[in-house]
Design goal:
Argininosuccinate synthase; ATP-binding; AS_cat/multimer_dom_body; Argininosuccinate synthetase, chain A, domain 2; 14 strands; alpha/beta; Rossmann fold; five-stranded antiparallel sheet
Length: 403
């Protein structure tokens, strides 16, 4: 533990058990002033009620609550959507995309209040420690970093509660909480509890936002989504901000049980973890964007976009947001998205999203060429020469083997 030269620390504070204990721990072990920083990225408003008072009661000298919701969706989520990034094929990167904007705003506050260091409550087992600290390094390498979970000897929920009780610091946390959750406007994740064994099926307590698909409405519902340059700009004919579009689609998707995944993923630090993730509005957005791309992008462009998405999923998951590689991938995706404009009607039904109608002024789909009926634009005889040249290398190899 290097406490020398640290007089003021800005802590990424949530008001939960861990960060409530971190404030007094920092004061006792570093002998410094602690400024609490709370990022509003669209979590449950109840979590923000009284959060400033909580931080001050825990020993913080100040508490700053910063509203990042619009910026989070427009500047972090939407750019990633353009690339089509899905980590390991299913995860829509809800926690991963939120960390760089939180850490960036934390650094900005640290520089503003003249802090010597920044601190986070991420454990030494997870990905978030890397995401936070990579952002700190990229934006303010002069700031010292304090990570209590890698230093202190408080190793359990019981120990943290006892620590706070000894210091007469109030907390609403209890021993009964068995799940670890992360929530923002884009998604909510649930880990721990019964999910720690992959042989245990998830139960109703593992899902927070969405209706069980088995209990969702028996009648499907349709929603119309407008896309411009690879971004959702309107829902059911109403033009909205990116955050506004997401809010509206979250309500519709959650109602129909859309956006649930139960996965085991590979963490950056080398272990596997299991989680139940809910991304209702985001799942609808992804389906809408893919539907327009199917009309607009030619085969090689679509393939390249898929490759961009694969690479971007690892870049974002691994916390490399503020890097030249991320900017380069983004620039390529933005170029491809220039003509990704259109309108899609999606049907929501018992956990499923289906694009049932799609149109675009830039569509490459031609009924004249695609028809199974008689047409006057396509000469079938041309295909023979194409196939002969396309398979030429195979023909040469076979002739050589015959000799």
């Amino acid at each position: 533990m290097q406490t020398q030269g640290i007089k003021k620390i800005v802590l990424a504070y949530s008001g939960g058990l861990d960060t409530s204990a971190i404030i007094p721990w920092l004061k006792e072990n570093y002998g410094c002033e602690v400024v609490a920083f709370v990022a509003n990225v669209g979590q449950d408003p109840e979590d923000l009620v009284g959060v400033e008072g909580k931080a001050l009661q825990s020993g913080a000298s100040e508490c700053h609550v910063v509203d990042l919701r619009e910026e989070f969706i427009s500047d972090y989520v939407y750019p990633v959507l353009q690339t089509g990034a899905l980590y390991e094929g299913t995860y829509l990167l809800g926690t991963s995309m939120a960390r760089p904007i939180i850490a960036k705003a934390q650094v900005e506050l640290a520089l503003k209040v003249g802090a010597d260091a920044v601190c986070h409550g991420a454990t030494g087992k997870g990905n978030d420690q890397v995401r936070f600290e990579s952002t700190y390094a990229a934006l303010a390498p002069q700031l010292k970093v304090v990570a209590p979970w890698r230093e202190w000897d408080l190793r359990s929920r019981e120990a943290l509660l006892a620590y706070l009780k000894e210091r007469n610091i109030p907390t609403t946390a209890t021993l009964e909480k068995i799940y670890s959750r992360d929530e923002n406007a884009w998604h909510i994740s649930t880990e721990g509890g019964v999910l720690e064994s992959p042989w245990n099926a998830s139960n109703k307590d593992c899902w927070v936002w969405t209706t069980d698909p088995l209990e969702a409405p028996d009648q499907p519902e349709q929603v119309t989504v407008k896309v411009e340059k690879g971004q959702v700009v309107a829902v059911n004919g109403e033009a909205l901000t990116p955050f506004g579009c997401l809010e509206k689609l979250n309500v519709l998707g959650a109602k129909h049980g859309v956006g649930r995944i139960d996965i085991v993923e590979n963490r950056l630090v080398g272990m596997k973890s299991r989680g139940c993730y809910e991304t209702p509005g985001g799942t609808i957005m992804v389906n809408a964007l893919r539907a327009v791309e199917q009309l607009v992008l030619d085969r090689d462009s679509y393939k390249w976009r898929e490759q961009l998405g694969l690479e971007m999923s690892y870049v974002v998951y691994d916390g490399r947001w503020f890097t030249p590689l991320r900017k380069s991938l983004q620039a390529s995706a933005e170029s491809l998205a220039e003509e990704v404009n259109g309108e899609v009607v999606l049907q929501l039904y018992k956990g499923q999203v289906s694009a049932i109608q799609k149109k675009s002024e830039n569509s490459l789909y031609s009924e004249e060429f695609a028809t199974f009926g008689e047409d006057e634009v396509y000469d079938h005889s041309h295909a023979g020469g194409f196939i002969r040249l396309y398979s030429l290398s195979s023909r040469i190899r076979a002739l050589k083997e015959q000799k």
